[in-house]
Amino acid sequence: MSLPGTVSAPEGVPCFLADSWWFALTSRLSDDRFAELAGLRAAQGFSAVQLVVGIPPEVGPDNASAWSSHGPPWFADGRPNTHYLDHARRRIERLNAVGLTAVVYGCWGHQLAWLGVSGATAWWARLVDRLDDLDVLYCLSGETNLWIGREDALLPDRSTDDLRRSAARARLPGRLKGALRPLRARYVRRRHAAAARARREGWDEVLGTLVASTDRAVLAHVIPGETSADALDRASLLAAVTVQTGHDQASRPLLWEWPARVARRFPGRPFINLEPWYEGIRDDFGPADQLFAYWVSMLAGAAAYCYGAHGMWNVGDGAFLAHWGRQSLDTAAALPTPRLLGASHRVLRRHGLPDPGGVTTVDASGGTLRSITRARADGSGAVTFYPDVTLADLPARLAGRDAMGRYFAPDQGELVAQPPGEGSIVLLT
Q1: What tens digit of pLDDT does each residue of 220-272 get?
Q2: Do 142 and 223 form a contact (C-beta atoms < 8 A)?
Q3: Which residues have CB under 8 Å from 298's CB, separation 6+?
Q4: Do 165 and 172 contact (CB within 8 A), yes or no?
């Protein structure tokens, strides 16, 4: 089937390859380690880092893991901590110095109840004042509709380690949890209709003020199961339609299905999946999954790509937020996958993608993807990803120098003369 194209990126929204460092401004990460990781990701081919300038997800405002070495982002009475803001600016300057854009998240969705609309607006005004001259993009909120009716669950200093799901719920198969998610969303909308309406209206108000205060691109991060256009009434103010497919193998088909739906609903609008599955989270989603998610997302029409690794996003030590898995920062930093993703991104960009007018063709059946192709709008070439080369309907194999440059092996990060006997392959035509 052929799918309509999506615009790759408006001005101010580059085709970035981002890593996710939600706790990067906290005291969990030293200045030296921060600089080391920034240099590593830049050398591997990344161009952006997502981070929170504020209270990170999964912790309350008085939790020690939410604070920088200069204290909390803001105090209990809502006053901003100027020393924290100076610290945030220095770290973002460090990212910029090695060529990394900072995708700045100012809040998480449920924190609107902690700050109030006026407090969240004032916090964003302070962030724009301190950061707008740097190389930044802004993200209104992480998971705008998270925990409606349960906003105080982490107050004052708890973490989600303290709120672990019951053993019975944790044992639910992934597909069943995925099927139950929309049912729970409908329940929340009915049970907490007034709170859901207030959350939506509140973030819409903050969004309007934020967009009016800056020329920087503004995004919004949402919960699984909805797009930013579903979550916000004024989503047209955002620079892209965004989703989160989340950390569930059952979401695999969404990697190619969701961009197509967005392209049909919002022709010409860029699309970004701000949170596909993280490497190592729940002891799953290894290198093959990460490369699959990258190539499928980008060839389905995404304007940019966001990687994440458990241990990296939470600056993990094996114990903190271990209900998501025990992979540590050191383990995450040593993973080979980011280098391979960087190599993939360079090849994709050199081959002229993303292309605003490109067309995607998908060969999939029963939730299994055989191939996905993105053709350039002018007909001058295309890129095809085959997740399993043994199932690939490849053209006649080429030989010698004519073949070199036509095949890219994602799990090797290299152009190859012939497809390997197993694994995935990218055909460049």
Answers
A1: 999 999 999 999 999 999 999 999 999 999 999 999 999 999 999 999 999 99
A2: no
A3: 305, 348, 353, 354, 374
A4: no
